[in-house]
Every structure is written in structure tokens, then in C-alpha cells.
Fold this protein.
Amino acid sequence: MKTWKQRGLRWLAGTVVVLGALATGISAMDSPLPVPGAGTSSPTNLPSERPTAHPPQGLAFSVIPTSQSKGAFEALLVGGGSWLRYRHPAHVAVLVRHPQGNLLFDTGLGRQVAAQFAVNGFMDRQFFGYEHVNPAVDQLAQAGWTPDRIKLIVPSHMHWDHISALPDFPDAQVWASTTEREHARQGHAPAFLASQFEGVRHWHDLQFAPTPYMGYAQSLDLFGDGAVVLVPLSGHTAGQVGMFLNLPSGQRYFFTGDTTWTMEGLQWPADRSWALRQLVHVDHDVPANQAAIVRVHQLMQRFPDLKVVPAHDENVLKTLPHFPAFQG
Ligand SMILES: [Zn+2]
């Protein structure tokens, strides 16, 4: 007769096998995105050289971590990710200190996030749960920065986890395209939370110029010196934007918003996992976002020294300077 211990071990082993098979089966639905011209030395429409920039002395940036997601298995966040790695996507603001005006690219979670988030139903509150909130406005205040020192806010897009702190900076100009604002206005929880943006006093209509930049057909040189250049990255939302940052040191960054949640998504390249995409409607236009992923992947191949930063990748973000430290 078998002991309880032996039965328990067999039950445990059986459960592990079943869960493993289930995870393997789910992950089998994921495959890397096809890359046109992969293996050749010249992907289409990419510049052969980096555009010139004349960043002013004093230009520098800093990451302000404002919160983190309660987390998920990496295999859900990116197709081909591991079921053994648990990730905690970060919610950050990126502070760019420019002599013509300081700007935030995204705001992370703000002082009013609890009230904003409360409109979500039970399941969404679990799924999008966050922890360790430390609003950017409070961290700035501790370092002697009053909120009015932030002149511009450029949200990569208007999802709740990127613009929660707009009410904390009432004097700032908020730059967003009509397309993105309309998308947000017609949207609803959990993706868009009207309480975050309906009180904005100073909207600025973000419009791109027909000036090609790093393979993108349009761009917007924010200060006219090539230091901060926005490009359209629509797909995840109707009007998502990416930000190139060219520092005085020569170091170049590309902040890619939520095109992917992880660096792995851009490296492989891969979309969010198939399983997750069955559970939640994440992307406004899936084919457009997948094309955006492949384009960033190609840029990384062409310019290996370009530092690419997906908005939530905690592993990439922890390598960047954290407020009050800056890098110029
Ligand atoms: Zn996000």
C-alpha cells in the first residue's frame, strides 16, 4: 500500500507535467515576427548615417520611477518569453532637461492614481494592479523642483499608466496629436481614464513635419537643434509617438513607448504573447504595431550603439540614471 507521501509526490509530479504541457502548448502559438530583408546588409528605407544633431550644453535626462506593475510571467508579456521569469514592468516618467524648457516624456503614476484607477472593475484592478507609488511631482519637490519647472509634457500615448500625473502639472503644455486625443476621448477604462486628461488646461496640437528621420517618413524636432526628435509610432494607439534623444556626449537614445513592453520583443522581434492577446485587447491596430516593432528591430541592427528604451522594461530602465541623477 502506498504512503500518503508517495501519493502526494505523484500528484505533484502529475500537476507539474500538466502545467508544463499547458504552458508549452500556449507558447507554441507564439513565433517571431518576420523581418523583410533579414540577413541582408541593407534593410529598406533606413538611413546609412545618423542624422546630425547640435544638442546644447546642459541637455540631460533622468528617469523618475513612479510605480511598478504587480507583474506577470514574461511568457505573457512577450511571445517566446520564459514561464520561469516573473517580470515587474515599471511605470516611469522621463525628465529631459533642456535649456529652452524641461519636459516629461510620459508621467508615470501620479498623486491621484488611486481615485483614477477606482473606476475599473474587479478583474481589471487585478490585471493592471500596481504597487510602490511615488509620484514624479513629489520626487521633484524633494529635490527643490516646483511643478511649474516642467514646461512640456509629451505622453508617448494616452493610456492610463502614461498620463496619470497630468493633474499634478496643471501649468504644463501637454503635446498630443488630435488623433491621439480623439482616440482617448472615445476610449474607456481600463485603457483610457477621462479623469486624467479632461482637466488639462494647455493642450498643444502635436503635428509632424514631412521631414524623414531615421527611416520614419515624418518627424518633429522639438527644439530645432536635433536634440529631441519625435516620430510617429502608431499601432499600439492611434497616435503613439517615439522620442529620439541626442545628448551632448554623443550618446543617442530612442524611447519607443509601448510598441513592446520588453526589450526582448524588439530584439527577437516578437509581439505580446498570443495568450495575452486573447485575454485583453491591447493594441489599437495589431498589424501596424507589428510593423512598428519590426522597424525598431531593423534600426537596432543598423545602429547597434542606439540605446532603445521600451517604456516599461524594468531591466533596461535600471541601467539609466535615476532622478535626481542626470546623464548629459
Ligand atoms: Zn503602458
Notes: The two ends are 72 Å apart (CA to CA). Residues 159, 161-162, 258, 311-312 surround zinc ion (CB under 6 Å). The longest strand covers residues 60-69.
